[in-house]
Every structure is written in C-alpha cells, then in structure tokens.
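Below is how a single chain appears once it has passed through the pipeline. First comes the sequence as given, then the structure the pipeline wrote out for it. We keep one example in the README because the format questions we get most often are answered faster by looking than by reading.
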Amino acid sequence: FIHHSCALQFYEARGDWADVACPTCGQPYDESISIRLGWHGKAQCEALYGPDSVEVAEVLVSLGNAYGAQSNAEQQLDLLQQAVSIYKDRLGEEHPEVAKALIGLGFAHGVLGDAALQLQLLEQALAIFELTFGPNAV
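Resulting structure:
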C-alpha cells in the first residue's frame, strides 16, 4: 500500500516522468497509481517539451503498459499508437524505441483478437531490432 500523495511527491521530485516504478523495490506501482502518475507526467512533459516530444512518447508507453496490465487493451492500443507515431516522426521509422512500442502495440492487438496484426507488428519490431543490433543479437 502507498499513499497516492506520497507517490506523487516523489514522482514530482524525481522528474523522470516515464518511470512509474517504486523507488524502493524498482517494481511498477499498482496500475491505478501508475496510471494516475502517468497522466500527471504526460501533462508535465507536454508543458515542458511539447505534445509531440519524445518525452511525451516515453510517458505514453508507460501509460499504455499500465493500462495493459489492467487488462484495458483499448486504452493501451490508443496510447501506444500515439507513442509510435511520435517516435516515428521524431526518431525515424527504424529506431529501437519504435520497435519497443510496436511490441506493446502488437500485444494489445492480440488481446483484442487480431492475431494477424499482432504477428505483423512483432515482425516489424524484430526487423528493426535486427537492423539495429544485428540478426544474431535478438
């Protein structure tokens, strides 16, 4: 158990808006706390860096993962689609951050019953990782 106000104070003091993990054990907070912190962090990043910044995309991925852990694949899908779009625009189509977000996006599509699209997205992510790190690194 953790007080939301205590988590929020630490989260603000740290200023690492995409990190919604407990500073003591390193595990992600309970999904409801992670989600509340993530929306706060998204607002902070938008104010500091702009709505289409890489920093916002990082928070969107954290938020998407929290919603996925809460079995809310629709919200996860929406957030990760936004993150992928920002990453592609800011970092390029073949950046590893795009691949990481595509993995989460693929899992969300799988949960929603679209296995074909899940496979396609996971294959895209694999291709990016192999291009970046080599075929034997993955």
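The chain has six helices and no strands.

See the next section for the split statistics.
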